[in-house]
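REQUEST FORM: STRUCTURE PREDICTION
Request ID: SP-0412
Submitted by: Lab K.M.
Chain count: 1
Length (residues): 89
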Amino acid sequence: MAGKLQFSLVSPEREVFNGLVDQVDAAGVEGDFGVLPEHAPFMTALREGQVTVIDGASRRVFDVHGGFADVNAEGLTILAEQASEVTAG
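STATUS: Completed
RESULT:
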């Protein structure tokens, strides 16, 4: 399997997350999708939902409202209208 996926989650206020991870799952307007290292390039709009960042046994979840995702040779960038990390309750 390939190495790590470079992932960046950005909102208008700040960069919410940036790092190397194993997988990112998100809610696209045409359905949920997952991105692994060396994924084929694509771009999609996002619907309101959650972005789950998986790195080994660690999972972080972010609520995202709108925006778009861009997968390219450098990794995955999500530009969200709003994004905040979900805290365990």
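NOTES: The chain has a mean pLDDT of 95.
Reviewed by: T.R.
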